[in-house]
């Protein structure tokens, strides 16, 4: 949990200045024990692959100076303290002594479903009693059981729930979130969900990327005529969400019991016609050939539990990120986890994300996902951290701004009460995140910038 007393101890505040402007005050973090910069290890630009996934670009005894919401300088504390731009802001700067703790770029959680109302506790108990994910869905549970509440909910109610999710993620070190709709499944309620995501994003200082997941599951009223529902997604949901500037990506659940490869291609074509990026939930429950999807240049393909061996080789030739969400495997009690080792060793860029959702992965915690990545997918702590930061940023096409601590990038940082970066993935079930910086705003509590 968030340690307010420690955060207060770390902060050295100038007493004479008052908050007043909307821009966050310049911020200086000094005495960082390990700063994981995640800077580019070589000339190659693109998502991290293979051995490069282990390169965290660690600086010891480091400092970071941020101003105007951006990172201005990064280096050894004594170098940063000599930066002339510091003098220009002096008397105005919020200074934080990090007491030799670990600082990294805020996590980029590139796969979440926060637009829901309630936990699915009946599903949870049925699964404990032996029912599978697909059996629960067939009996009226699963995704469809979240739909009714979202359809009835007002936009402000939904916004409050989404915002609560963002805040919980932030308490665990996340500063950028991809947020999907997908529990409305009508034009009106999908647009309402996306609008509620936008409302919540406006009240949170972190960064939110919106994704339309109208093709999450075929809703009850379209049972037996799924192609008509696909038409609705293509001809109404996607164009209207685009026109209202509510969405950046379109996602499809491409799997047994959800949407076919042909449906997905049709939806991807409609998304491309509107200038939107695409991604898909794929190979979670069954093998699906990826080639027909790769021609659309998807930003990510997510889950990938049952990816075919020959597709792994093909994927390595693309910048499409394989986003692995082991929280779902954990929560569904599965023995098998996504084949991270095979993907990484073949040169596929891999990200990890929470898949925060009420049915299969109700966790807001990236540190927990790091733990699962190491213990169940045999990723090294360094690989898991790169997958949760810079490669998450690539999966959202935000790598020019997010995912590493480099001058010119957005000031998104997470400070952890640990001495060695490997502890991020080692301790589980407890968050050691002391505070975060989101676009230059210091988050010391549920509210940003309340330090004056
Ligand atoms: Zn998902």
Tell me the radius of gyration.
21 Å
Which shape, going by the Cα principal axes? globular
Considering DSSP H and I runs of 4 or more, what fraction of the residues is helical?
Answer: 25-40%
Q: Look at the helices and sheets and give the structural class.
A: alpha/beta
Mean pLDDT over all positions: 92
- Count of extended strands: 17
* Spatial separation of the terminal alpha carbons: 22 Å
Secondary structure tally, helices:
18
User: What's the story with the biggest beta sheet?
Assistant: 9 strands, mixed
Low-confidence stretches: 1-5, 13-21, 446-452
Q: What bound compounds does this protein have?
A: zinc ion
What is the percentage of strand-forming residues?
15-25%
Your description of this structure?
The protein has 452 residues and is of the alpha/beta class. Helix content is 35%, strand content 21%. The strands form two sheets. Strands 1, 2, 3, 4, 5, 6, 15, 16 and 17 form a nine-stranded mixed sheet that branches. An eight-stranded parallel sheet has the order 7-8-9-10-11-12-13-14. The longest helix has 18 residues, at 226-243. The chain is globular. The two termini are 22 Å apart. It binds zinc ion. Zinc ion binds at residues 111, 113, 281, 355, 357.
């Amino acid at each position: 949990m968030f340690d307010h007393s420690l955060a207060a101890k770390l902060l050295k505040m100038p007493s004479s200045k008052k908050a007043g402007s909307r821009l966050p005050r310049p911020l200086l973090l000094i005495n960082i024990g390990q700063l994981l910069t995640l800077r580019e290890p070589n000339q190659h630009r693109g998502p991290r692959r293979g051995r490069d996934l282990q390169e965290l670009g660690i600086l010891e005894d480091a400092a970071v100076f941020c101003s105007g919401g951006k990172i201005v300088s990064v280096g050894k504390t004594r170098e940063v303290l000599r930066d002339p731009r510091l003098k220009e802001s002096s008397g105005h700067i919020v200074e934080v002594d990090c007491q030799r703790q670990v600082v990294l770029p805020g996590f980029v959680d590139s796969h979440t479903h926060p637009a829901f109302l309630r936990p699915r506790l009946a599903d949870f108990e049925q699964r404990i009693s032996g029912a599978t994910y697909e059996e629960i869905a067939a009996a009226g549970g699963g995704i469809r059981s979240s739909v009714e509440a979202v359809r009835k909910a007002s936009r402000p109610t939904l916004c409050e729930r989404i915002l609560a999710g963002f805040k919980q993620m932030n308490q665990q070190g996340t500063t950028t979130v991809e947020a999907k709709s997908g529990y409305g499944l009508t034009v009106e309620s999908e647009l309402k969900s996306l609008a509620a995501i936008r409302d919540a994003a406006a009240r949170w200082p972190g960064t939110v990327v919106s994704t339309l997941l109208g093709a999450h599951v075929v809703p009850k009223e379209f049972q037996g005529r799924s192609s008509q529902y696909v038409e609705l997604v293509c001809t109404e949901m996607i164009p209207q969400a685009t026109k209202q500037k509510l969405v950046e990506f379109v996602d499809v659940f491409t799997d047994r019991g959800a949407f076919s490869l042909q449906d997905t291609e049709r939806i991807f074509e409609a998304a491309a016609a509107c200038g939107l990026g695409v991604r898909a939930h794929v190979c979670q429950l069954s093998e699906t050939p990826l080639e027909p999807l790769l021609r659309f240049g998807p930003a990510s393909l997510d889950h990938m539990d049952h990816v075919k061996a020959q597709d792994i080789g093909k994927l390595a030739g693309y910048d499409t990120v394989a986003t692995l969400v082991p929280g779902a495997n954990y929560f569904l009690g599965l023995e098998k986890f996504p084949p991270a080792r095979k993907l990484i060793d073949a040169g596929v860029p891999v990200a990890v994300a929470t898949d925060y959702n009420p049915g299969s992965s109700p966790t807001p915690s990236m540190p927990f996902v790091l733990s699962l990545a190491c213990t169940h997918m045999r990723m090294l702590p360094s690989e898991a951290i790169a997958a949760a930061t810079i490669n998450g940023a690539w999966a959202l096409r935000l790598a020019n701004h997010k995912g590493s601590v480099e001058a010119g990038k957005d000031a998104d940082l997470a400070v952890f009460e640990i001495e060695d970066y490997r502890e991020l993935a080692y301790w589980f079930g407890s968050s050691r995140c002391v505070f975060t910086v989101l676009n230059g705003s210091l988050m010391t509590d549920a509210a940003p910038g309340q330090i004056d």
